[in-house]
Design goal:
The complex is a heterodimer of chains A (102) and B (406). Chain A contains 3 helices and 5 strands, in the order ββββαααβ. By secondary structure, chain A is of the alpha+beta class. Chain A has a single domain, classed as Arc Repressor Mutant, subunit A, CATH 1.10.10.1150. In chain A, helix 2 crosses helix 3. Chain B is of the alpha/beta class. Chain B has a single domain, classed as Alpha-Beta Barrel (TIM Barrel), CATH 3.20.20. In chain B, strands 8-7-6-5-4-3-2-9-10 form a 9-stranded mixed β-sheet. In chain B, strands 11-12 form a two-stranded antiparallel ribbon. The longest helix of chain B has 17 residues. Chain B is globular and about 55 Å long. The two termini of chain B are 32 Å apart. Classes of the chains: A alpha+beta (102), B alpha/beta (406). At the A-B interface, strand 2, strand 3, strand 4, helix 1 and helix 3 of A face strand 1 of B. Chain B: Its cofactor is [4Fe-4S] cluster. Chain B: Pathway: Cofactor biosynthesis; pyrroloquinoline quinone biosynthesis. Chain B: Belongs to the radical SAM superfamily. PqqE family.
């Protein structure tokens, strides 16, 4: 039942669960994640990565896209993105799209 | 509960993960921006009678409660002001027949909804309707890990079994669950089992909240106050569990300030980042604020907007910032760390809300008051005064004898 203890890897297809809402806060002019009794302020890079987390894209595809956009080494981006997503997953603010095939 | 809302968070994100908790990014110099989250105590009616209830001793009667339309107007106004989350609380929020309608309205105006509930009135259909209305999170209070202690503290038969059932439905509906456990002398021995219960219920978060002693809890202090040894043991148990359960269960820990040397930064500082609205529509700096006599609180039923009340009302400005402080707070290097502690506690224990919170070791009243509490903790007065609209009912004697004998 639980969607916790996810191991984020390049094959993961992460998405925000129903209870974690990414929203632009018009009053304060910042992106926020609304979570149970918490308001989190993701930094610019986290916001960009979270916008790619649609449950369809794999982490590998996200990393490819970011590496191309920033002309940065793929390996470094992969490490950063996976670490960030893993941390979100550990806090319960990220889930994985259900696998259609095992 | 509201302590964690007000910034006493233990789950602050580290600097490496791209996340910060928004409350903590505010600078001290900032003027008082509208809070991110607001606590809505939509009723004081509750089937439970917990002796440490955080509601005021003078409860709002059902007939004084805001109507459905009035609450909807409040929700719309809050969303327009930039409030992002609401906590539907009480009393028992599901005692109101319009709870689904109110959650739906919160969703419609873009607010994120949390339900803070005793759970005992919920059916599976009602919970499912709340989820469909956009409810994002359920927090259920537990009084112990088994019915004997839990139902006695709640003052309601079969409450514990019902809570377990609703907790399971919450997870079946894929809503995140917080278990709130209010701890005191008569249930602290169950803490390891309560932690395991939260894991077994597949909760995301557990709040281990030691009783804060004002209102009903102050009346019951002699029956609730833990011993110093119990608190030391509690801290050990919590720290061990936090490490062991990382990634499975987040544990927030609210320490009892009676045994601290420094007071808590209550509500994140008076009028700085928190307000709540009472069943009758009063806008309050703290859910216990009405216990302070001599302060006038404005209502949403007045001609003033909520924004005006927050910025300009006398009650909010009375203890804002540091200008109101007497010594030893005035010249204290921690004055902007704890803002002098808790105004309600200062009032309850010293008779003046403008005094230093006696939880602070620098308060001239600290020693006398906490010696007394320590003596009470070692005493054998275990009978509860149950919370109700009649001003409280003392627990029956025979029942107590039975528990003493077990």
């Amino acid at each position: 039942m639980a969607s916790r203890n996810i191991n984020v890897s390049e094959t993961s297809r992460p998405k925000l669960p129903r209870h974690a809402k990414l929203k632009f806060d018009e009053t304060r002019q910042v992106w926020v994640i609304l979570a149970p009794e918490r308001v989190l302020a993701p930094d610019e890079i986290a916001v960009e990565v979270l916008h790619l987390c649609d449950g369809v894209r794999s982490v590998a595809q996200m990393v490819d896209q970011l590496a191309e956009k920033y002309a940065a080494p793929r390996e470094a981006i992969a490490t950063d993105v996976i670490a960030m997503l893993q941390d979100l997953a550990d806090k319960g603010f990220l889930t994985e799209a259900r696998e259609s095939t095992a | 509960m509201s302590d964690t809302l007000a910034g006493n968070k233990t789950t602050t994100a580290g600097p490496t993960d791209g996340l910060a908790v928004l409350e903590q990014t505010r600078s001290a110099a900032e003027t008082y921006g509208i809070p991110l989250a607001v606590l809505l105590e939509i009723t004081h009616r509750c089937p439970l009678q917990c002796p440490y209830c955080s509601n005021p001793v003078e409860l709002d009667r059902g007939s004084t409660e805001l109507t459905t339309d009035e609450w909807k107007k409040v929700l719309s106004e809050l969303a327009e002001l930039g409030v992002l989350q609401v906590h539907f609380s009480g009393g028992e929020p599901t005692a109101r027949k319009d709870i689904v309608e109110l959650v739906q309205h919160a969703t419609d105006v873009g607010l994120y909804s949390n339900l803070i509930t005793s759970a005992v009135l919920l059916t599976k259909d009602k919970l499912s309707a709340l989820a469909d209305a956009g409810l994002s999170h359920v927090q259920i209070s537990f009084q112990g890990n088994e019915p004997l202690v839990a139902d006695r503290v709640a003052g309601l038969k079969d409450a514990h079994r019902k809570k377990l059932e609703v907790a399971k439905w919450t997870r079946e509906l894929d809503m995140p669950l917080t278990v709130n456990a209010v701890m005191h002398r008569q249930n602290l021995h169950q803490l390891p089992d309560i932690i395991q219960m939260a894991v077994d219920l597949d909760a995301d978060r557990l709040e281990v909240a030691n009783v804060q002693y004002y209102g009903w809890a102050l009346k019951n202090r002699a029956a609730l106050m833990p011993t110093v040894e119990q608190i030391e043991e509690t801290s050990r148990i919590v720290e061990e569990a936090q490490a062991r359960l990382k990634g499975t269960l987040a544990i927030d820990y609210v320490v009892p300030d009676y045994y601290a040397l420094r007071p808590k930064k209550c509500m994140g500082g008076w009028g700085r980042q928190f307000f709540n609205i009472s069943p009758a529509g009063k806008v309050l700096p703290c859910h216990a604020a009405e216990s302070i006599t001599g302060l006038e609180f404005e209502s949403v039923r007045s001609n003033h907007s909520i924004a005006w009340i927050w910025q300009n009302s006398e009650a909010f400005n009375r203890y804002r910032g540091t200008g109101w402080m007497p010594e030893p707070c005035k010249s204290c290097e921690f004055r902007e760390v704890d803002y002098g502690g808790c105004r309600c506690q200062a009032f309850a224990l010293t008779g003046d809300a403008g005094n230093t919170d006696p939880a602070c070791a620098l308060s001239p009243r600290h020693e006398e008051i906490f010696k007394q509490a320590e003596q009470e903790s070692a005493g054998s007065q275990n009978r509860f005064l149950y919370r109700n609209f009649a001003g409280g009912t003392l627990e029956a004697d025979e029942r107590q004898d039975k528990h003493d004998g077990s």
